[in-house]
Amino acid sequence: MKIATYNVNGVNGRLPVLLRWLELAKPDVVCLQELKAPNKKFPEKAIAGAGYKSIWHGQKQWNGVAILSRDLEINEVSRNLPGESDDYQSRYLEVLVEDLLIACLYVPNGNPAPGPKFDYKLRWLDRFSIRANELLELGTPVILAGDFNVIPTELDVYKPESWVKDALFRQEVRTAFKILVDQGWTDAIRKLYPTEKIYTFWDYFRNAYARDAGLRIDHFLLSPQLKDYLISGGVDKEVRGWDKTSDHAPVWIQLANEY
């Protein structure tokens, strides 16, 4: 099973890019973030035409998540991250794909930091950590996938010293991510590439993509039931170089079918 995560940075504005990539990569399951589309404007028909069923949790402006499935049964579990009843931001979606539970997430950016947006990010990560631990306790196969807006280590950023005050790399955020992973999750890309430079995001400014001045902020975390079934994975970096593309590239993993 091939599973991908992709921050599309506007599902309608980038729809030709998304459809082109789906045709080339043919993932079985895709987690999308930053839809920038209310529920009524999600391009369900176009995505169905590409062979994918979809469940989405949209919102106007900057948020929104969706999960697509090709030839596999998909059912929604939840679209609310517990912990703040007045949190209206569409950043979380849980589905069952066959017997695999997948959570798609779009963690708040948190900048400027410190400040209210950073405080919200830390609260969101804390709420997510609680939910992730609950999912682990189910004892079933679970994948947490999406744009975490977290640079875990210095290996995951092109110029660490320039990012120490940024909300993606501040020590509080890196600590929160480590606490999450240490519950028993496996960082799939780092398991496959323990010492290599791997980026998933390149800013539109300062010629970042051409200079390979990137960040690794899009992640897969695997529950213990799945870590030994991870076959391969990577970043479709070339997609970031396409015309009118997202500032993120798709990230994918391959799991053995017999998990």
From TrEMBL:
<feature type="binding site">
    <location>
        <position position="7"/>
    </location>
    <ligand>
        <name>Mg(2+)</name>
    </ligand>
</feature>
<dbReference type="InterPro" id="IPR004808">
    <property type="entry name" value="AP_endonuc_1"/>
</dbReference>
<feature type="binding site">
    <location>
        <position position="149"/>
    </location>
    <ligand>
        <name>Mg(2+)</name>
    </ligand>
</feature>
<feature type="domain" description="Endonuclease/exonuclease/phosphatase">
    <location>
        <begin position="4"/>
        <end position="248"/>
    </location>
</feature>
<comment type="similarity">
    <text>Belongs to the DNA repair enzymes AP/ExoA family.</text>
</comment>
<dbReference type="Pfam" id="PF03372">
    <property type="entry name" value="Exo_endo_phos"/>
</dbReference>
<dbReference type="InterPro" id="IPR037493">
    <property type="entry name" value="ExoIII-like"/>
</dbReference>
<dbReference type="InterPro" id="IPR020847">
    <property type="entry name" value="AP_endonuclease_F1_BS"/>
</dbReference>
<feature type="active site">
    <location>
        <position position="106"/>
    </location>
</feature>
<keyword id="KW-0464">Manganese</keyword>
<dbReference type="InterPro" id="IPR036691">
    <property type="entry name" value="Endo/exonu/phosph_ase_sf"/>
</dbReference>
<keyword id="KW-0479">Metal-binding</keyword>
<feature type="site" description="Interaction with DNA substrate">
    <location>
        <position position="248"/>
    </location>
</feature>
<feature type="binding site">
    <location>
        <position position="247"/>
    </location>
    <ligand>
        <name>Mg(2+)</name>
    </ligand>
</feature>
<dbReference type="InterPro" id="IPR005135">
    <property type="entry name" value="Endo/exonuclease/phosphatase"/>
</dbReference>
<feature type="binding site">
    <location>
        <position position="248"/>
    </location>
    <ligand>
        <name>Mg(2+)</name>
    </ligand>
</feature>
<protein>
    <submittedName>
        <fullName>Exodeoxyribonuclease III</fullName>
        <ecNumber>3.1.11.2</ecNumber>
    </submittedName>
</protein>
<dbReference type="GO" id="GO:0003677">
    <property type="term" value="F:DNA binding"/>
</dbReference>
<keyword id="KW-0460">Magnesium</keyword>
<feature type="active site" description="Proton donor/acceptor">
    <location>
        <position position="147"/>
    </location>
</feature>
<feature type="binding site">
    <location>
        <position position="147"/>
    </location>
    <ligand>
        <name>Mg(2+)</name>
    </ligand>
</feature>
<feature type="active site" description="Proton acceptor">
    <location>
        <position position="248"/>
    </location>
</feature>
<feature type="binding site">
    <location>
        <position position="34"/>
    </location>
    <ligand>
        <name>Mg(2+)</name>
    </ligand>
</feature>
<dbReference type="GO" id="GO:0008311">
    <property type="term" value="F:double-stranded DNA 3'-5' DNA exonuclease activity"/>
</dbReference>
<dbReference type="GO" id="GO:0006281">
    <property type="term" value="P:DNA repair"/>
</dbReference>
<dbReference type="GO" id="GO:0004519">
    <property type="term" value="F:endonuclease activity"/>
</dbReference>
<dbReference type="GO" id="GO:0046872">
    <property type="term" value="F:metal ion binding"/>
</dbReference>
<keyword id="KW-0378">Hydrolase</keyword>
<feature type="site" description="Transition state stabilizer">
    <location>
        <position position="149"/>
    </location>
</feature>
<feature type="site" description="Important for catalytic activity">
    <location>
        <position position="218"/>
    </location>
</feature>
